[in-house]
């Protein structure tokens, strides 16, 4: 019988429910969805249609497991974890879901029968870019691990219609294009039209006294938008457990449309609808620099208000008293972006549930936990008081009351330090007043954690030192981690296979098992196999680069990779200065014995961040000069891969030899790219910063190239008066490089083009200490090149990096959060 006829499909589907479907029905399921869900002819479906149908077939399987998981959480009456984040960066779902469900082989077979390969079909997926970078990607690794550990958890965020912009490089410059990720359909999600919560902004607060003589506060007027839940499923690795990431989409509220209609203003009603729905329209593309815009504050409250209503709705089902709330719920704030949840819970408890303030506050500070992700002063979020009052008038009042009581306690605890009050106040006083969101988050949470040991110390010793003195018990460290399922098993299947062949599969859920690879590090046979896998990965990336950039690179060359957001503190500039240094050495002496290298860059710059975009342009200009200089040949190549995203990271990580983690010491809170590279066998060249320091402790200093100032040296130097010019004057190689840039060597058509970059270094203080670290970086780069010449030695180092990355699994991080902060266990 023809297997595409409705009768045949229905017959095959009737044989079992999706969770128990025998694998060979996957093909029938795909064809069924092509016809009935997508409305296409299933005789010869195209690749995109097959991808979508496969996604739907997998969603069928996921939803059953999700319902079973939800039932189990209800049955156990578990304490729930709510992970609130303005950003999630899940990456493509297809392979991840296939791996978690154990259906990779079946999918391959089914697709082969349909005339496709899994690679081709997976290539049809457009990843949801609902995050800027590390913070959002971390949230997604954490959801993966929460599911792996069967935690009773939820991710809550916003379903931006447009995620992080799509980056093109045109004439060497970044150009931004809208990321219309929903265009291809919503095959992974369920829209929950029955979970709509009203979210209210603006208006004014009316104070009144009720019959019992209580002072009451009611918000009047204002404008209401509906939040509609959209769920995406996050399966645990082969454990039948599925969590959901609930993302809110803004929908206009009917009542308000009607009020317009009643006055006959039809277009006004439509305009209002569009304005309302704008709230979830676009992700702010700024990493490490909040924008302070009204729409952004509305986004934050939109997430918080809808989520709090959802949490309370669920809590109410149990019919237990409010004082049980912290025993049943923990709300985790991923950075301060969702910190307005603290006054929102207070508002619910005090204004609506009529709890006394003290009781409400007691519940609040036992419910919230906060993770800080940055110490850059410009990245600490503050809101102009005026704007806050306009958008959230009642919340501002509540923040003032929290502050009044907090400062009262501080005054009692530290009577002899009058200046302290202003420094810890939730309100920054000055010509303009600001609400300090980090202070609110610390005061309102029972736990405050940093994301690497180094960063957590900086928090305690410097930026939040005074809070540490007030609440020492709240501060703790939880070093970041990454999921080994995506960042080894999925992105590097051949290496994963080689590992599994030798030590079994346990590492997938217990990454410390990779230690068992250590004895193989000396085996010539294993080294050879290891390097063969790596070389194949490098060949694949070379093919990709050739196809995308038209540049031919040597797979045997040292792949030196710097991919992450563009920010001056991440110092892509330092890297390119070194590239030019090597170029000059080759120009001087083509037989200088330079180890052939391919420098690969990737990353987006915030659209309004002039210097970061200018550095992208410089890199491309240098690349053009070097790649077209016949004297250089195969010795050096510089590649800028456009639109760095999770999908691209998955291609790059397995093919990297040297991983650039070179932020100015004290500025990168943790980093997680550093971990992804090392897990795939890259060797790090890096500074004493963030998680690099813990990586060094684990892999050993012979397996990581460390250089540069320590964070206290950076501070000392700054205090003593750092003069970048001294380095320019005393280091002739450096001087030559800077003179070439400012003299127009890389921009012959416009010799002044890059002058301001050099100016920022020489005449504007070189805030990120690029020149101070240049020489030690160049030396360490030489060590790296020398080490690369000794291929067996490199193989050993590479393997030991992988073998010793067990600690950096997000399963370990999540286990620590669950045990030490949240007090929850697996279901
Ligand atoms: C799933 C499973 C079902 C549960 C429901 C609860 O449909 O057993 O009752 O979720 O959803 P929430 O009310 O917790 O969002």
From TrEMBL:
Listed cofactors: pyridoxal 5'-phosphate
Gene3D superfamilies in the record: Glycogen Phosphorylase B
GO biological process terms held by the UniProt record: glycogen catabolic process
One Pfam family of this chain: Phosphorylase
GO CC annotation terms, alphabetical: cytoplasm
Signal peptide: none
CDD domains per the UniProt record, alphabetical: GT35_Glycogen_Phosphorylase (cd04300)
GO molecular function: glycogen phosphorylase activity; pyridoxal phosphate binding
N6-(pyridoxal phosphate)lysine carried by residues: 676
The enzyme's E.C. designation: 2.4.1.1
Record key words, sorted: Carbohydrate metabolism, Glycogen metabolism, Glycosyltransferase, Phosphoprotein, Pyridoxal phosphate, Transferase
Catalytic activity: [(1->4)-alpha-D-glucosyl](n) + phosphate = [(1->4)-alpha-D-glucosyl](n-1) + alpha-D-glucose 1-phosphate
Cited InterPro entries: Glycg_phsphrylas, Glyco_trans_35, Pyridoxal_P_attach_site
Family assignment from sequence similarity: Belongs to the glycogen phosphorylase family.
Chain's role: Allosteric enzyme that catalyzes the rate-limiting step in glycogen catabolism, the phosphorolytic cleavage of glycogen to produce glucose-1-phosphate, and plays a central role in maintaining cellular and organismal glucose homeostasis. Phosphorylase is an important allosteric enzyme in carbohydrate metabolism. Enzymes from different sources differ in their regulatory mechanisms and in their natural substrates. However, all known phosphorylases share catalytic and structural properties.
Protein known as: Alpha-1,4 glucan phosphorylase
Organism: Desulfovibrio psychrotolerans
């Amino acid at each position: 019988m023809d297997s595409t006829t409705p009768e045949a499909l229905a017959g095959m589907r009737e044989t079992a429910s999706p969770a128990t479907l025998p694998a060979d029905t996957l093909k029938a399921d795909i064809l069924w969805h092509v016809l009935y869900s997508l409305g296409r002819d299933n005789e010869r479906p195209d690749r995109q249609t097959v991808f979508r149908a496969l996604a739907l077939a997998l969603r069928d399987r996921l939803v059953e497991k999700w319902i079973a998981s939800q039932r189990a959480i209800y049955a156990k009456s578990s304490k729930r974890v709510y992970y609130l984040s303005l950003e999630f960066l899940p990456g493509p779902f297809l392979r991840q879901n296939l791996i978690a469900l154990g259906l990779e082989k079946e999918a391959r077979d089914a697709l082969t029968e349909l005339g496709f390969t899994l690679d081709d079909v997976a290539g049809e997926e457009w990843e949801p870019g609902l995050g800027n970078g590390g913070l959002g990607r971390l949230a997604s690794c954490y959801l993966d691990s929460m599911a792996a550990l069967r935690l009773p958890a939820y991710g809550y965020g916003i379903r931006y219609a447009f995620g992080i912009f799509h980056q093109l490089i045109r004439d060497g410059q970044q150009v931004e294009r809208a990321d219309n990720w929903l265009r291809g359909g919503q095959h992974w999600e369920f829209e929950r039209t029955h979970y709509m919560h009203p979210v209210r902004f603006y208006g004014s607060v009316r104070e009144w006294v009720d019959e019992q003589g209580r002072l009451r506060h009611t918000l009047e007027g204002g404008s209401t938008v509906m939040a509609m839940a959209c769920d995406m499923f996050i399966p645990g690795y082969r454990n039948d457990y599925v969590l959901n990431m609930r993302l809110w989409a803004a929908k206009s509220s009917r009542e308000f449309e009607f009020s317009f209609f009643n006055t006959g203003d039809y277009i006004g009603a439509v305009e209002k609808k569009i304005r309302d729905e704008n709230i979830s329209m676009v992700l702010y593309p700024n990493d490490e620099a909040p924008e302070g815009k009204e729409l952004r504050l509305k986004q934050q409250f939109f997430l918080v208000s809808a989520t709090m209503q959802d949490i309370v709705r669920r809590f109410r089902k149990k019919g237990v008293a409010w004082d049980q709330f912290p025993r049943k719920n923990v709300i985790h704030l991923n950075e301060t972006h969702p910190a307005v949840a603290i006054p929102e819970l207070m508002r619910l408890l005090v204004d609506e549930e009529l709890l006394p303030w003290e009781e409400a506050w007691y519940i609040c500070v036992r419910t919230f936990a906060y993770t800080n992700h940055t110490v850059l002063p410009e990245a600490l979020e503050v809101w102009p008081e005026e704007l806050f009052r306009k958008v959230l008038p009642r919340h501002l009042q509540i923040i003032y009351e929290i502050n009044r009581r907090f400062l009262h306690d501080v005054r009692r605890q530290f009577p002899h330090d009058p200046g302290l009050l202003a420094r810890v106040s939730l309100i920054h006083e000055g010509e303009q007043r600001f609400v300090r969101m980090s202070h609110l988050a610390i005061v309102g949470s029972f736990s405050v954690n940093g994301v690497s040991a180094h960063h957590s110390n900086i928090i305690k010793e410097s930026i939040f030192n005074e809070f540490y003195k007030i609440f020492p018990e709240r501060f703790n460290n939880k070093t970041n981690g990454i999921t080994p399922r995506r960042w080894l098993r999925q992105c590097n299947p051949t290496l994963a296979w080689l590992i599994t062949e030798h030590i079994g599969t346990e590492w997938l859920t217990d990454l410390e098992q990779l230690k068992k690879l250590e004895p193989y590090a000396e085996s010539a046979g294993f080294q050879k196999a290891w390097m063969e896998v790596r070389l194949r990965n490098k060949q694949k990336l070379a093919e990709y680069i050739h196809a995308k950039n038209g540049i031919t690179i040597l797979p045997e060359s040292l792949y030196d990779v710097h991919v992450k957001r563009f920010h001056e503190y991440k110092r892509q500039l330092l890297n390119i200065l070194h590239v030019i240094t090597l170029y000059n050495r080759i120009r001087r002496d083509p037989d200088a014995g330079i180890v052939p290298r391919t420098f690969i860059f990737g990353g987006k710059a915030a659209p309004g961040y002039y210097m970061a975009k200018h550095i992208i342009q410089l890199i491309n200009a240098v690349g053009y000069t070097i790649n077209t200089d016949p004297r250089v040949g195969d010795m050096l190549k510089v590649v800028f891969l456009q639109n760095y995203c999770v999908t691209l990271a998955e291609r790059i990580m397995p093919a990297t030899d040297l991983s650039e983690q070179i932020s100015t010491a004290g500025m990168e809170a943790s980093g997680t790219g550093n971990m992804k590279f090392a897990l795939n066998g890259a060797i790090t060249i890096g500074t004493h910063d963030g998680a690099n320091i813990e990586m060094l402790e684990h892999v050993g200093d012979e397996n990581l190239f460390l250089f540069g100032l320590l964070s206290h040296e950076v501070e000392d130097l700054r205090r003593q008066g750092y003069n970048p010019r001294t380095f320019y004057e005393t280091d002739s190689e450096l001087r030559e490089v800077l003179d070439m840039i400012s003299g127009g060597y890389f921009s012959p058509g416009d010799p002044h083009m890059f002058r301001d970059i050099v100016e920022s270094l020489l005449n504007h203080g070189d805030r990120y200490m690029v020149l101070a670290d240049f020489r030690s970086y160049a030396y360490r780069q030489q060590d790296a090149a020398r080490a690369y010449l000794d291929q067996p030695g490199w193989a050993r180092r590479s393997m030991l990096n992988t073998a010793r990355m067990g600690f950096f699994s997000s399963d370990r991080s999540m286990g620590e959060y669950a045990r030490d902060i949240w007090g929850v266990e697996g279901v």
